[in-house]
């Protein structure tokens, strides 16, 4: 931990930010010392990202001042911040898929030799960064096709090569499993020892105890509480974030009905990511799928809805083989997938909420092939109200918080009244309050008789919402546990076989 008597490496004083007539930051004061990790916590919309974007030069404050290493600091672009020694790793992946890993790591600052890009040096330095994070992959490989977890590690490796004196990490472990997270924490400890200051944003509160030196809590654009140590009960942190007592995170889980709705028999990936998977889901049942990163969870559910090819096996609905050959085929049979990456795969971000609703429900909003704005808006308004999306039908999807974007993805598909709902990482990167709302939606579906499958890297989440938990390990089905038998130890024992 840093020496608190040392001068701060970064100071913010009375930072305010307004968008039009609305002030979203209200006089923020914040100090970051060399060699310390400050956890910046709060619900979506609390102002964490706005503060981070001001520090990293993405947006300008409306008033207030910053100092960096004792001098006035007012970056007007991210490049100015990076040149000063401040780097930010965004939650949203910003990689270019058609470039190699090395090219992505050094984009905009390629090493040169005799006026030409020095590819050898670039690839070696990128490889070193990947190795430090435990990612054994060629830096010459294209980013396209890599898992979300591997792309996140590449973003982190990119920041490590900048030799920054202050790193802002926005949800750096959201896509990572336990091993990758521990390797990242080891790098953070090394950076701290080198005097690097770190602002760490995360919704995984348990990991805050492991990595943070101090905690700063924001709510509604204000800094509402600061803890001098990370040794604080999670409940205390959550109550500071939401401004109220939080009695229970997970709602009561209803018992499933006896009728089997979905059955998966001997399903094997054509790409080798999983093999011989067998399970069934009853009417009104919530089946959790757990496992470490790379276990084949996402690949399994993608194959189930016809996105990825299978070499053998069957998908049965009500006892009939319907094995979808495309997502359209799955949707036609009442099986929908809410994907793990809501921004890239779940929404058309520059388009309105109403348009996003319409794209998934053309048969309901288009009469005789024609869509009217009035009909599309009315359809979207009903879904927005029903599922508690904080937004308006004419508003752009990219203007919503992460939690409300996720609600929108779920709501636009649930408007089709599906038989089976598959949710891949349904609460990744969203705050505690929004998580509770999504858990209530999941349980509400089960109560209505919908069969639900929840894939999550958050073990507490899987255990909290599931009637049964299927554990995958290295592409194999390691076991299925009833709710009473599923706990941290029993799941991890199966996940690591």
TrEMBL record:
Q: Which Gene3D superfamilies match?
A: P-loop containing nucleotide triphosphate hydrolases (3.40.50.300)
What highest taxon heads this organism's lineage?
Bacteria
Q: Name one GO molecular function term.
A: ATP hydrolysis activity
Q: Which PROSITE patterns match?
A: ABC_TRANSPORTER_1, ABC_TRANSPORTER_2
Q: Which residues form a coiled coil?
A: none
Protein keywords: ATP-binding, Cell membrane, Membrane, Nucleotide-binding, Repeat, Sugar transport, Translocase, Transport
Is Repeat among the key words of this record?
yes
Q: Which Pfam families match?
A: ABC_tran
Compartments where located: Cell membrane
Q: Which InterPro entries match?
A: AAA+_ATPase, ABC_carbohydrate_import_ATPase, ABC_transporter-like_ATP-bd, ABC_transporter-like_CS, P-loop_NTPase
Residue stretches making up the ABC transporter domain: 10-245, 256-497
Presence of the UniProt keyword Transport in the record: yes
One GO CC annotation:
plasma membrane
Annotated membrane topology is: Peripheral membrane protein
* PANTHER family associated with the record: CARBOHYDRATE TRANSPORT ATP-BINDING PROTEIN MG119-RELATED, D-ALLOSE IMPORT ATP-BINDING PROTEIN ALSA-RELATED
Its protein name is Ribose ABC transport system, ATP-binding protein RbsA
The source organism is Candidatus Rhodobacter oscarellae
Taxonomy of origin reads:
Bacteria, Pseudomonadati, Pseudomonadota, Alphaproteobacteria, Rhodobacterales
